[in-house]
Amino acid sequence: MRARIIAELDDIQDRSDASAAAKNITLLDALHLVAMSWKRVSEKTIENCFRKGGFSKTKPETPAS
Fold first, then answer.
1. Does the model's pTM come out above 0.90?
2. Which residues span the domain enclosing 19?
3. Taking the CA atoms of the chain, what radius of gyration do you get in angstroms?
């Protein structure tokens, strides 16, 4: 499934093709892409985002020297 979507997106050359390709991607395909993308986000990235957004009062870890 992912290979099919990637191959289809690689073939896009102008906006009309992009629109046609988008119509061929199902909701299930989109959900799988979101799930794969979310799995690639590290725990450290989430911690940093919460800290930067002011949702965490902990200080960043400092490497031991």
1. no
2. 2-52
3. 19
